[in-house]
Description:
It contains 2 helices and 6 strands, in the order H-E-H-E-E-E-E-E. It has 114 residues and is of the alpha+beta class. It has one domain: hypothetical protein PF0899 fold. The N and C termini lie far apart (37 Å).
Amino acid sequence: MHEFSLVQSLLSRVGDEARRRSALAVHSISLRVGELSGVDPDLLAGAFEMAREGTVCARATLRMNRVPALWSCPRCKKAFAPGEVLHCASCDAPAELSEGADALTLESLEMEVP
């Protein structure tokens, strides 16, 4: 379950940010989860619930914004529908992933600071 190691890294990063700002607590964490990231949101949420105890994030909520995979032509910007061949008939160019990549991105934190 790689979600647990992702949560451990996330909590380490958030802890560093909280210490840098002398935060008393973290109230919420927002993540962007790319459709192609291979992350199971339910497993990630469960791992977060277990791992956050005893940390500055002990009472924090985790919000995940799922980003669907979107493909487009790099030349003419034509968008490709799911299941469509990822090659532009007009430009003869292969499609590029424009959204929903394999990234897991920390979007925002809400912290209580003195």
